[in-house]
Design goal:
It is a single chain. This protein is of the alpha/beta class and 217 residues long. The protein folds into two domains: 146 residues, 3-Layer(aba) Sandwich (Rossmann fold); 55 residues, Winged helix-like DNA-binding domain superfamily/Winged helix DNA-binding domain (Arc Repressor Mutant, subunit A, Orthogonal Bundle), CATH 1.10.10. Helices cover 52% and strands 13% of the residues. The protein has a six-stranded parallel β-sheet, sandwiched between helices.
C-alpha cells in the first residue's frame, strides 16, 4: 500500500529521525518545527532502535544517517524496506562519495540529502519522497559530477584487497592471520602498504578510502 493511501491531503507527513548524534536530531526537529506538513513522531540513535520505532509507530518516512553504532544506516535501510515497504527511507548524511550514494539507493533508499544543505532542500526532499518520488539533492548531484572527473583510485594487489575487506569487516590482525593463513607480521606488512597506498593514517582512514575509491567491488 502506498503512503498516499494512508494519508489525506491535509494529513502531515509522519517522519522518524535516526542519527547517533542528539544535537543533529535536535537541529532537524527545530528546523521542521514550523512546518504544518511534517510531523516528527519518533527518533532513534542506531539502526536496531530504528527498526523498533518503525514497527511501533509506522511513520511515512525515515530520515536515516549512515554511520551509526550497533547497525549502520545501509543495513537498517535494507531491513526496513523488506519488512516495512510502505515506509520510505531518505538518507541524510555527510558522506557524499558516489559509491556510498549508490549503495544507499541499491539497498532501498529513495532519496539522499547532505547534512550541510538547508531547510528548504530538506523539506522539499521529505515531501517529494513521501509522495512516492525519488530525490537526490543538488549537493549530491554536484558531488557525483565532480567525482566522475576524479582519477581512478590507487592500485592494490589481490591479497591487499582481501586484507582490506577483512579490516573493513572489523577483523583483528590475529583473525585476519587465521582467515588468510598468513602470519601476523605479514598482515601488519599488508596493512602498512595499504596505509601508504591509500594515504590513510589509521584503520578509520582505510575504511573511508575503501568506500571512496570503491576498492571492494
Amino acid at each position: 500500500m502506498d503512503i498516499e493511501l494512508d494519508r489525506t491531503f491535509s494529513d502531515p507527513i509522519r517522519i522518524a529521525i535516526v542519527d547517533d548524534h542528539q544535537v543533529v536530531i535536535d537541529g532537524i526537529c527545530a528546523m521542521l518545527a514550523g512546518s504544518e506538513q511534517i510531523e516528527v513522531v519518533g527518533t532513534a540513535h542506531n539502526g536496531k532502535d530504528a527498526i523498533d520505532i518503525v514497527r511501533i509507530l509506522k511513520p511515512n518516512l525515515v530520515l536515516m544517517d549512515i554511520s551509526m553504532p550497533v547497525m549502520d544506516g545501509i543495513e537498517t535501510t535494507q531491513m526496513l524496506t523488506r519488512q516495512y515497504p510502505e515506509t520510505k527511507i531518505l538518507m541524510l548524511s555527510m558522506l557524499k562519495e558516489q559509491s556510498m550514494v549508490k549503495r544507499a539507493l541499491d539497498h532501498g533508499a529513495v532519496g539522499y540529502v547532505l547534512k550541510n544543505e538547508g531547510k528548504e532542500t530538506l523539506i522539499e526532499a521529505i515531501e517529494q519522497v513521501a509522495s512516492g518520488e525519488k530525490y537526490l539533492s543538488e549537493g549530491v548531484v554536484e558531488s557525483q559530477k565532480m567525482q566522475k572527473q576524479t582519477p581512478a583510485g590507487p592500485k592494490i594487489s589481490r591479497r591487499e584487497k582481501q586484507v582490506l575487506q577483512l579490516i573493513v569487516n572489523e577483523y583483528t590482525a590475529k583473525e585476519i592471520s587465521d582467515e588468510l593463513f598468513i602470519s601476523i607480521n605479514t598482515v601488519d606488512s599488508h596493512r602498512k602498504n595499504l596505509l601508504m597506498k591509500l594515504d590513510a593514517r589509521n584503520t578509520a582512514g582505510l575504511v573511508r578510502m575503501a568506500i571512496e575509491y570503491d576498492l571492494l567491488k
